[in-house]
Amino acid sequence: MMEEQHIASVFDRDLEAVQARIMKMGGLVEQAILEASEALEARDEELAEKVRRDDLAIDDLEALIQEECARIIALRAPTAGDLRIVLSIMKIAGNLERIGDYAKNMAKRTSVLVQMQPISGAHTALRRMAREVEGMLRDSLDAYIQRDATLAKDVIARDRDVDQMYNALFREFLTFMMEDPRNITACMHLHFIAKNTERMGDHVTSIAEQVVYLVTGETPDEMRVKGDKTSTDPSVAPDVPRSGDA
Amino acid sequence: MMEEQHIASVFDRDLEAVQARIMKMGGLVEQAILEASEALEARDEELAEKVRRDDLAIDDLEALIQEECARIIALRAPTAGDLRIVLSIMKIAGNLERIGDYAKNMAKRTSVLVQMQPISGAHTALRRMAREVEGMLRDSLDAYIQRDATLAKDVIARDRDVDQMYNALFREFLTFMMEDPRNITACMHLHFIAKNTERMGDHVTSIAEQVVYLVTGETPDEMRVKGDKTSTDPSVAPDVPRSGDA
């Protein structure tokens, strides 16, 4: 019994340490999203370059977290419930790393876009979309620490807004391209940025789904009303019903 | 000593079982790539629908493999070297799952593209690209089972060909769009398919990198000549040198 308590407390200390790293990683990713979208709107090449450099620290943190989680599993041989928590941390670290990559990609495209004629309004709309995703990420990490399934489900619901922002931008870019072929190259970049921001939202959603699963045991399929997010992308299936997606 | 041998052999049995699942998953993903590109070229909606359905089995296998790996780590408390192997399996399962998603996405876009005027030559070029990626995937999984770092490095090198195929298609689609705005929507879909196929190649490369790491201890940064693959994407940085990517 004493023994068990001892093991439990050691596991909890390990868990706190790695969860602190997840929070640090989350903070860096939030910063990357905001700075990347700010660099895009302000056509600020230096800030874009900084975002690209800073992504290395995010990648290093992910590798460190994966190693630590594996070490915890190996050393503590956690119970099923505790194992579920460690696995969720490994998944969340993976989601954060990918969101960071999308922010880096946005920064790369910015370095190219500054050489082109700006597309009026697009950068502001993209920044609004990025801000929404950053807010969802902050809430999903809070929900994780607080084990707050209600907040996590709220984040999952808000992803629909991001999908709608993307859909609106997609149609806007199509119009710009059809109006003037000289806009095509710039719009291709902006469309990729919009698409990648929408994907960031999908990864934030999967973090929130991890939280709901941890707290309630509900799996994503059970909690997700719609199917695969990509089916909400008009560039995939504007007229195909989501049900056709399962 | 006997004890150690016993534990080792139990670990090896577990490992063989989960590696068999990885091979099964790999086979399903190879099939998805080939069928998705065949459906695209033949404008075969039924085959595209089959690819979308079959992706569920791939997702289920991934979840199963992740659980089994966690169970192995928890029960066998493997040595550092064995732990590295189990972690590599978890990473490879994740890569395979994402490749399967891209194949599903290709199938979804096919269901939309069949309603549009075909873009001459594009589907054949895309299928060639998909075939190349499928071959790389097969070799990377063989390299994993054989612990063949040479074959794995060959796969990593071949990813440059896939990047070049993508770059060529990207410029082709731009031309089609500029020539006739009525091509824009179809070209946007085809461009996403090309981009996603190039991303499949990146995930195959990361599987091959896992193999090299397992066999030689070399990390991706050490073995990768170029930096982040996205920097080879002309839609990201046509004129930015790769060195500017680090």
From TrEMBL, chains A, B:
- Subcellular location as annotated: Cytoplasm
Query: Region Disordered: start and end of each range?
Result: 222-246
An annotated GO cellular component of this protein is: cytoplasm
Keywords, A to Z, come to:
Cytoplasm, Phosphate transport, Transport
Q: What processes in GO biological process is this protein linked to?
A: intracellular phosphate ion homeostasis; negative regulation of phosphate metabolic process; phosphate ion transport
Q: Which SUPFAM superfamilies match?
A: PhoU-like
What sections of the sequence does the record tag as coiled-coil? none
InterPro entries to which the protein is assigned, alphabetical: PhoU, PhoU-like_sf, PhoU_dom
Q: Does the keyword Isomerase apply?
A: no
Q: Which residues form the PhoU domain?
A: 22-110, 126-211
The record, for Pfam families, names: PhoU (PF01895)
**Compositional bias (Basic and acidic residues) at which positions?**
222-231
Family the UniProt entry places it in? Belongs to the PhoU family.
**Oligomer status and interactors:** Homodimer.
Q: What does this protein do?
A: Plays a role in the regulation of phosphate uptake.
The name under which this protein is listed is Phosphate-specific transport system accessory protein PhoU
Species? Pseudooceanicola marinus
Please name the taxonomic classification of the source: Bacteria, Pseudomonadati, Pseudomonadota, Alphaproteobacteria, Rhodobacterales
